[in-house]
Amino acid sequence: PPDVEQLGRATWTFLHTTAAYYPARPTTQQRANMLNLLHSLPVLYPCSHCASHLGETMRTNPPDVSGRVALSRWLCERHNEVNERLGKDKFDCAKVDERWKDGPPD
Ligand code: FAD
Asked: What is the pLDDT of residues 40-91, one digit of tens each?
C-alpha cells in the first residue's frame, strides 16, 4: 500500500501549488477542469479512508473554483480539517501565498 504520509505531502504540494497559480479569472473550461480534478479525488485518491473523509467534507463545503484566492482558501480550509483530525497544528490561511507562491517576505 502507498505511504500515506509521503503521498499526502506530495498531493498537498501539487494541489496548493496548482491553486496558487490558478487564474484570478478562470475561463468556463478552466473552472470545469478544476472541478473535475477535485471531484476525482474522493473517487481515485489511493488512500481510501482519506478519500472518503474528503468526499464528506466536499459535500458540506463544495469547491469554490471562481478564482485563485477563493480556491486557495477553500483548499487551505479542507487541509486544516485534515490537520485537525490528525491532531496537527492549524495552518494560517492568510499565509497560503507566502507558502505556496511568493516565498517568505524579504
Ligand atoms: P502535510 O499535512 O502533508 O502538509 C505539507 C505542508 O503543507 C506543510 O508542511 C505546511 O507547510 C503546508 N500546510 C499545512 N497545512 C496547510 C493548509 N491548511 N493550507 C496550506 N498549506 C498547509 N492522512 C491520514 O493519516 N488520514 C487521513 O484521513 C488523511 N486524509 C488526507 C486527505 C487528503 C486529500 C490528502 C491530500 C492527504 C491526507 N492525509 C491523511 C495525509 C496528511 O494530510 C498529511 O499529508 C500527512 O500526514 C503528512 O503530514 P505533514 O505533517 O508532513 O504535512
From this structure: 999 999 999 999 999 999 999 999 999 999 999 999 999 999 999 999 999 9
Domain that holds residue 73: 4-99
Domain of residue 53, CATH code: 1.20.120.310
Ligand 1 pocket test, candidate residues 52, 79, 90, most atoms within 8 A of CB: 79
Separation of CA 78 and ligand 1 centre (Å): 10
What ipTM score was computed for the predicted complex, to two decimals? 0.99
Rounded Cα gap, residues 64 and 19, in angstroms: 11
What are the residue ranges of helices labelled H in 45-101? Answer: 48-60, 68-85, 96-97
Nearest CA to ligand 1 atom 13: 91
Q: Which atom of ligand 1 is nearest to the CA of 9?
A: 3
Domain total in the chain: 1
Residue 10 resides in a domain: yes
